[in-house]
Amino acid sequence: MGAAAQHAVTELGSGGTTIVLGHGLGGDQTQWAPVAAALAQHARVITFDNAASGRCAPQVFSPERHSSVLGFSDDIAAVCSDLGVRGATYVGHSVGGMAGALASVADAGLFSRLVMVGASARYVDDPSTGYVGGFSADAVDSMLDTVRADFMRWSSGFAPLVMGNEARPEYSEEFARSLRRYSPEVAYTVFKAAFRSDFRAYMHRVSVPTLLLQSSADAAVPLTAAQWLEDEIPDARLRVLRAHGHFPHVVAPAEVLEALERFGVPG
Prior knowledge:
By secondary structure, this protein is an alpha/beta fold.
């Protein structure tokens, strides 16, 4: 079974432009459904499920390899290789955005453009440099302890916190259900990989035009982290969306699509 089949790849549309959509932790490719359907009117659109998510083959997940975001980055490259995709536009959410950026650094011809939605190079504050990632080291340690000790309780609080949009509780309820497809140990592994990561040293090596999309209120990634990426990635521009929460493509797909169009996606 090739990487595309293992990651349950879905292809929509056709055309000279290929767009690859990568989801973040706890979600799956269905979170992109409205965006993918709209983009597929003018382009070939590829979605897939990350290791341990959605319909991804169980054997893909490795506790060792996916203890780093680099494992997810390697998976993206493998899916693209299996499909013969090069020079595509990659749009990635959260950790999926950082994984795509790292794949681009490893292979500069893999993508022609990047869009990183709610991505962060480091979630933990670094007082020694003045970097603000949004979380103290103690807060991350406490969160990970709760993930391991009482995953159900943690997911019940984490989902509405990061989804926001309290007036639409169905969004956070669906995300909580999606999160709980992880076992507690898998959840601990992947969230530790994300929240203890630090990829700041790689970001100046991103060599393709990059759009950073950031919600106006995001409990997972503060605006300062997005601004740091804009300053560090050589050809990056930041757009702050009106949408609230960590999942603008879920709660405000039309606004995300408008931002993509302004960036030339598809095109």
